[in-house]
Each structure stands twice: as C-alpha cells, then as structure tokens.
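Exercise 3.2. Students should predict the tertiary structure of the chain below and write it as structure tokens, then compare their answer with the key that follows.

Predict this chain's 3D structure.
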Amino acid sequence: MTKVYVSMGFYPHEYFKDTVDYIARVQQSSGAIPWFEGGSLDPWDHIESAMGLTIGQRFEEARAAYQWLIDNQTEKGTWLAAYKDGEIEDGTRAESNFVAYIATGVWHYYLSTGDKEFLRHMWPAVEKAMGFVLRLQGSQGQIYWAENTTEGIKEDSLVTGCSSIFKSFECAINIATTLNLDASDWTLARLKLGTALRNHPECFDRTWDSKSRFAMDWFYPVLTGVITGSAAKQHLTNRWDHFVKVGLGCLCVDDEPWVTVAESCELVMALISCGEYNRAVELFSWLHQFRDEDGSYWTGYVYRDEALWPLEKPTWTAGAVLLAADALSNATPAALLFRNEGVSHRALPSAQDTKGANYSKIIE
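Answer key:
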C-alpha cells in the first residue's frame, strides 16, 4: 500500500492537486458541490468541499460555492436538508449544525486569502445564519438540532452537531471582530454552549438512543476546541482502542468493522490540536490506500469483508483529506483553524524536526 507522510513544511502539492481537481470537476455551474456527480448536496458537506477548493487555491470556484449559499439561503437564514440538480430534495427541516457551518467556511477562506471584501460580501448571510442558530439555543446553552418545516423546533441536541456549532460561533465572532461589528450575543451563546457540552450531558440524546458509539461524538469536542490541553489528550486516549484500527483508520462506530476516511481526517486534526502531532502524522499516512486514481477518496472500508463501502467517492471526503493535510503541513495561512487556540506554533514539530522520522516523503 501507499503511505503518504505529510508533516510541518512538507505538503505534496502535485499529489493533492488531483484531489482538488476532483472537487472542482464535480462542482456544478451554479457553484453547488454535490457529494458526487449525479448526487445530492447538503449545506455542511458543500462547505467542507469548498474549503478543499480554497486549500488548492481554486479561489474562483470556492467563491462560487459560497455564492451558492447566498443564492439559496431562506428568509429565516437557513438552508434545508438536501438539494439536487438545482432543486430542494429534502425540505423537511433546517439543521442548526448545517446552517452554522457557513461561518467556519467563510472564516477559513478569509484566513487563506486575507480578502476582507469577501468577508463584507458574505456578512449578511453569516449574520442571518447565526441568528437562526441563536433562536435554537436551549435554556442550558445547548443548541437544538433542527427546525422542522411543519412541526417547529426539534428540542433535542447532538454532541457532534453542537461541537461543530461551537467552532462556528468562534469563526462568526472572528468575522464580526474583523469587520468591527458587535458579536456580544454570539460570544455569550458560545460560552453557554461550551458549558453545556462540558458539564451537562443530560442536555444531549434525550429523545433518541445515545450517539456515544459514534467516533464523532468522541473526538469532535476536541476537534472544535470544546475540550483542550491535557484534558483533550486524555479524552482521546480514553477511547482510542475503541475507535482506531491500526493501519486502517478511525471507525465510524465502535461496534462495526468500518473505517471511514473523513472521520479519520478529522481525528488527525483533533490529535494535532492537543499536541499528539506524531500520532496524527501516522494516522494520516494510513488513509491513502483508499485513494482512487483520479485523486478522490473512497468513503470507507469494511475490513471484515476486505471491501470498500459504499462505492462512493464524496467531495467532502476529499475536502477533509485536504484540511488534514493542510493542518499537518502548514501549507496555507488557514492551517491553524482546526489546530485551535490552545496549540502554539512552537508546540508543533518543524520540517527540520521531522526529517529524521522519515515524515517528509512519500513511501511506497
């Protein structure tokens, strides 16, 4: 198998160019980025793919993706669950996590480019989106997961979704601050949300089975900065053996023999954020056996059956690969976004530090 070791100061541009180009080929003329050709689009994964385009310096295509969000935003500030071929495919609900993620994508683009005019252009859409999210905040700080278009707000919350929103609040606050605009409501909401995630587990999974079997519930609080420092490192250590299959990657759930590339990439970034840099490099090196010849990546692998499954190559999986590679290598100014505030550049190995570990090359 092919192992790709990406490390600080080493980003194999030619290798990942095909991955960027794959996202751009699937993107439609409207700016929409479906999961794959002929597939559906959801707002969160659309934005994940747009960030991949930004890392690959496909700025025109990335801006088109963000313009699609402006063009399809509802009066409430939302996007609905799924779209396909220019039409709404699933209009039953607006998910708070999906809606909030625009702030993360927009801030990522600004970090990459320094384009303040882009921030101004996107500000009304970000403001409306985060206003919707604020409306779904519960009394203990949790954010309810969705508003059903016929039944109203669904008053239960997800650890993974709320953790992602915690990061989106951070990004929205940064956008507002850069534009010299007030963000006090968002700052308070983020503070309350962090408290709920850390101290009030009773706010989550109240009306459905616990999602703790999902790897994302395990590592997302670390990935998004809810849990930081030594506590974050211990948090990941506690369930590492439940979720990580050595030589393959991170499981989607701890009771099924299925590793997934996107979750593995997000775990890579979570590891970096709490100082587990070498472990992150090694985990990322395993994932390229699931790369196709066109630069795309298969969703995942069922190791019990020795089979790729499903036979899909999502654009958002490619986006996650690019985000992880950027975070590991510091290839763009946005690389620090998912390394979180608690990680200083001094805590990360330099390219010189990692040469002796054979990280600065591709090994066949």
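Discussion points: The longest strand covers residues 87-90. Residues 116-135 form the longest helix (20 residues).
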